[in-house]
Backbone:
């Protein structure tokens, strides 16, 4: 395998408290040194990172690649290229594929598809219940042995709290992480927008923030009862941040993430009837957005995910409530993180940590850092490079993003996965 020398970049590695200009040395797919050149090192490839940032590759805790089952929307090939172009080196795949990831055979299929796409670092999240129907538990141990990194029920409800309790006990007994999307399905009542001014103005079926906070509070109680490790995914409102902060304060083994779009958009940004803004959980109020930002800066929220959900044109046509929710988001995570830094919401080190080291700690992966001996998952990006979100620059098969046509600042120039260059920006 090639020896790679990344020279004269600003190295930011939050896990090792590094922020200085220097070089990174890679051999046999691993980091062998940071700043100090190893004796006898003869690089095959030299990457000039002058005026660029060198950091650990990003880890995305929630993504959908539409395979298997919906390849008309996207494929592993198209979406892994999109991920690599965004500096993302590891993806966690939600279990609501077709068929559902509820048997070891489907987990093996996911690994095969990842290998064929030449992007092996895709970790399936196993279904918590069979077929995600919320009634019978899946075979979590065999799914873990097949390579699933966690368990979850995606966006589907668990039918009652006794089923959820038993599932959490089962997960805890095998030290499995539960990735939980807090949403009371019945309170949500098939809504498509936040229960607030926008939904009222346009007569849209709405979802109160209580649908999220009630489900979150119930799961927190069961986490304390069962001892299960729980990661709360894609939180969207102020009171959820408060509850997570309190739970951490009193010692519960929980963590949480927020989808990047929730840190930038609110119900006030929704163009009337534009389905690019149709997401679940819905875009909420300005106060909720500000509290999510504070939660990220203060540590109540541990990480940022893309919640990537590419769609074809048909899925986003029609009346707003009839369209399918979700944003194609892999390629906008990096520039939107840099926008948070520019707005002084977080520091650059905090932003990189929320996308690399913190997710690695949540998943207990030996990655997310430029530690010697770790796999060489590296992102090199130009923080000042302007680019437009358009068909010339876009890699994902899904064009469903509210940022289409906008000029964003910051783009990956090189992405390395286990020492292999999987993306290089053509200038």
Residues:
């Amino acid at each position: 395998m090639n020896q790679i020398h990344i020279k004269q970049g600003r190295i930011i590695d939050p896990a090792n408290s590094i922020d200085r200009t220097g070089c990174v040395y890679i051999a046999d797919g691993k980091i062998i040194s940071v700043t100090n050149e190893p004796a006898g090192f003869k690089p095959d490839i030299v990457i000039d990172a002058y005026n660029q940032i060198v950091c650990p590759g990003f880890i995305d805790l929630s993504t959908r690649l539409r395979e298997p089952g919906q390849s008309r929307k996207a494929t592993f090939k198209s979406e892994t290229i999109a991920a690599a172009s965004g500096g993302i080196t590891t993806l966690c795949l939600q279990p609501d594929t077709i068929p559902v990831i509820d048997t070891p055979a489907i987990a093996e299929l996911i690994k095969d598809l990842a290998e064929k796409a030449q992007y092996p670092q895709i970790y399936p999240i196993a279904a918590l219940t069979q077929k995600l129907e919320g009634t019978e538990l899946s075979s979590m141990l065999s799914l873990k042995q097949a390579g699933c990194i966690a368990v979850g029920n995606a966006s589907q409800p668990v039918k009652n709290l006794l089923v959820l309790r038993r599932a959490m006990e089962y997960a805890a007994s095998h030290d499995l992480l539960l990735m939980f999307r807090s949403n009371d399905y019945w309170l949500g009542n098939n809504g498509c927008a936040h229960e607030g001014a926008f939904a009222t103005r346009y007569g849209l079926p709405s979802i109160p923030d209580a649908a999220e906070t009630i489900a979150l509070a119930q799961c927190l109680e069961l986490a304390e009862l069962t001892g299960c490790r729980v990661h709360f995914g894609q939180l969207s409102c102020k009171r959820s941040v408060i509850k997570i902060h309190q739970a951490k304060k009193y010692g519960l083994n929980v963590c949480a993430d927020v989808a990047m779009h929730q840190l930038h958009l609110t119900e006030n940004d929704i163009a009337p009837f534009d389905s690019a803004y149709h997401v679940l959980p819905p875009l909420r109020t300005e106060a909720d957005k500000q509290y999510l930002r504070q939660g990220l800066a203060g540590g109540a929220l541990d990480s940022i995910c893309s919640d990537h959900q590419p769609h074809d044109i048909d899925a986003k046509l029609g009346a707003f409530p009839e369209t399918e929710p979700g944003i194609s988001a892999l390629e906008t995570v990096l520039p939107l993180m840099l926008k948070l830094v520019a707005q002084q919401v977080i520091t650059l080190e905090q932003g990189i940590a929320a996308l690399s080291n913190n997710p690695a700690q949540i998943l207990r992966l030996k990655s997310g850092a430029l530690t010697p001996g770790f796999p060489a998952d590296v992102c090199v990006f130009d923080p000042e490079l302007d680019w437009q979100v358009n068909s010339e620059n876009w890699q994902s098969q899904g064009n469903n993003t509210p940022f289409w046509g906008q000029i964003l600042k910051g783009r990956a120039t090189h992405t390395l996965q286990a020492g292999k260059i999987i993306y290089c920006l053509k200038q």
